[in-house]
Design a protein that fits this description.
Layout (H helix, E strand, L loop, with lengths): L1 H19 L8 E4 L6 E7 L8 E8 L10 E8 L8 E5 L9 E7 L2 E8 L7 E2 L5 E9 L3 E9 L3 E4 L2 E4 L7 E8 L21 E6 L5 E2 L2 H5 L5 E2 L4 E4 L2 E4 L3 E2 L12
Parallel strand pairs: 3-15
Antiparallel strand pairs: 1-2, 2-3, 3-4, 4-10, 5-6, 5-13, 6-7, 7-8, 9-10, 11-12, 13-14, 16-19, 17-18
The protein binds 2-acetamido-2-deoxy-beta-D-glucopyranose (4 copies).
Length: 260
């Protein structure tokens, strides 16, 4: 029963994705970021499928094609339309929106904020309660795009309540999904409190072939991941309310942070 329900959800998701746009190529394009010298396998969604375009990339530990990695270094290049529609974008590390670890990112106050999410249905995903961790290496924001390079630890195996899943780097291809929206999230200062609209700037699933992602410099690159950007979230402890600082650690190359 449970298997049937999950299988149906997966089929429904694929149908949903394919009905709205043409599946894009899973063939990766190597991209080396000039500031960090990190080389990624990248997959780009064209302007015609998502206004402003979208690119996702991953770098992996050197043995990732034979031994499943638990983490990766990610590259997200997403688009903003104008000063109000700064948008949000996201990736599904399992391909489908449901039953996969989801990562959302959006620009706010000069920083790029991120939120791990999980959902079993087609509605606003819940906050992910597993141990995935994101540390930023660089973030750049301009009028039309925001780009984030980050280390994603414990991101390729996930657990939410009694459900678990994984993305296997040793079994090519890897199913990934993307989504992008025009409106900025509501309640943007705290990533776990955001409200988001439907991804009205496109979404799709693709079977990503890995080629240039594993690299012997991977471990060295992880040392650049020093910044945790948490946003401003109020945590009520008894009668006192404390606000966590917007970010900790040194400001990464190219990042602009606005003192709050
Ligand atoms: C590993 O990364 C370096 C630096 O970005 C790059 O020059 C090299 O081509 C990469 N190796 C592979 C096998 O892609
Ligand atoms: C901003 O972009 C959105 C999405 O394309 C559009 O609906 C809105 O009219 C734009 N606003 C302005 C002020 O240009
Ligand atoms: C904004 O960033 C994007 C992506 O890095 C880049 O292609 C574009 O040229 C930048 N725009 C400006 C005005 O610098
Ligand atoms: C990944 O998921 C598959 C299928 O559910 C399972 O057989 C495998 O043991 C999982 N691998 C890890 C590392 O969790």
């Amino acid at each position: 029963m449970r298997f049937c329900a999950n299988a149906f959800a997966a089929v429904a998701a694929v149908t949903l994705f394919l009905s709205t746009s043409v599946a894009q190529s899973g063939t990766p394009v190597a991209y080396t970021d000039p500031d960090t010298d990190i080389t990624f396998d990248t997959w780009t969604v064209s302007e015609t499928l998502s206004k402003g375009g979208f690119t996702f990339g991953i770098a992996l530990p050197s043995d990732a094609l034979t031994t499943d990695a638990s983490e990766f270094i990610g590259y997200l290049l997403c688009s903003s339309q104008n000063t109000t529609s700064t948008g949000w974008c996201g990736v599904s590390l399992g391909g489908t929106m449901t039953n996969s670890l989801l990562l959302l990112a959006y620009p706010h106050g000069g920083s790029i904020l991120t939120s791990f999410r999980y959902t079993t249905g087609y509605h606003m995903p819940d906050v992910y309660t597993g141990n995935a961790e994101l540390t930023q290496i660089s973030s750049t924001i301009n009028a039309t795009h925001y780009a984030l390079i980050f280390r994603c630890s414990n991101c390729l195996q996930w657990t939410q309540g009694s459900a678990s899943g994984n993305a296997s780097t040793s079994t090519s291809p890897m199913n990934l999904g993307w989504a992008q929206a025009f409106p900025a999230p509501g309640n943007p200062s705290c990533p776990s409190d955001i409200t988001i609209h439907y991804h009205d700037n496109g979404h799709n699933i693709w079977a990503a072939t890995l080629k240039n992602a594993p690299n012997t410099s991977y471990t060295d690159w992880t040392a650049m991941a020093k910044t945790t950007v948490k946003g401003r979230c109020s945590t009520k402890t008894g009668s006192t309310t404390t606000a966590t600082p917007a970010s900790s650690g040194p400001v990464p190359a190219g990042a602009t942070t606005t003192p709050k």
